[in-house]
Amino acid sequence: MNKKKAIRILEEQKQKILSSEHPNNDEWTFETASYIKDFFGFDSTEYAWISQFKWHVKYIDHPIFGNEDEADRALREKPKKAIIFLDNCIRTLNNKGLFKKSKRNFLSDKTNFELISIVFGFCVFVFWIGYWTKTVELFSLKNKAENSISFVSDTTSQKITNPKEKSTESSKYKPK
């Protein structure tokens, strides 16, 4: 839903209050509260206000607590208060825009302790991988060094032959 559509819906709700054909009842309140919750969020002050809004007034006919005239005046002010509220909501939408639920990822549900443990565990794992690869590399270098030393000792221990002797030996086995 976009901001223009939200404003149009609030204007329609305001027209319902002003219309003599539409009774001011709890159905209007439920519908408006549903819209307000979508537009501003469940924890907003706008939703808190509309969820407490009632079209009726309770009174006690008593000199200390009030009388019927005050109850009638309060009932006449209810539509005015609702219209002022809707106008304020429209202004807020124009200024702030619609409420967007925060996007959650797999880390947003973790506590600080869990996050620190994950980071620490990752660091230990990376250190272990580095240590292991270093050990493998050193082992490989050690084997290469041992092989090269044994190769050098093998070549020096062999008798060096005269190249002419090699050629004569190879000529003995020539096919005819």
Automatic annotation (TrEMBL):
Sorted keywords for this record are: Membrane, Transmembrane, Transmembrane helix
**Where are the membrane-spanning stretches?**
113-132
Which segments show compositional bias classed as Basic and acidic residues?
A: 162-176
Q: Annotated region Disordered: where?
A: 155-176
Please indicate if the UniProt record lists Transmembrane helix as a keyword: yes
* Transmembrane helix listed as a keyword: yes
For this entry, the protein name equals: Uncharacterized protein
Species the sequence originates in: Flavobacterium glycines
